[in-house]
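Consider today's protein:

***
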Amino acid sequence: SLVWSINAIEPDAELTLTYLMKTDQAKNSIRTFYDDMEGDPIERWEITYDEGGNTDNFWYTQDAIVHSGESAWVVGDVAVESEHFLQNTEPITVSGDYPVYRFYHYYDTETGADGGFLEVFKEDAPDEGYIPLTSQIFRNGYPRKLKYETFVIPNLNAFSGLSSLDFTMTPVYIDLSEFKGHDIKIRYRFGT
């Protein structure tokens, strides 16, 4: 627990608090799934789209904006109504004390109209369908709501707008604790 006690601060005043934290080196993370998007990622990821949607707007890999390595997934932001899905082919077994899923992304869409969000599918509970990831995102989450018409989902928060001015990819961290013991697939859902 970390607590600062501040007796008073003037309106509009800024106060910078800094601290140094050190963790036990014996308590390190254990990576159970990693995809650097090299080689042929189409073998590891499934691409689908909504029926009747714009089939020319599939996800594909590109090499212009990447976090590391040589490629990253991209999906077009077109004016035509469309919905596109990208999910891992092989399920990920969620384990460990504090399981976290991290990915890096950059986006530049029509703010509030086009954007995307993430969902989870539990292989052992298919009747539950896809579960939107919302409160599980604890760092760099969805910045705004999308129009109802984009997905016909009320009050939907999503990645929409411009993520950075310098084409830097931002990490997103998702707490998967509630899915421990399940084999899951992560689905990226994008709509225009």
User: Anything to note?
Assistant: The longest helix spans residues 148-151. The helical segments are 148-151. The mean pLDDT is 89. The first strand starts at residue 45 and ends at 49.
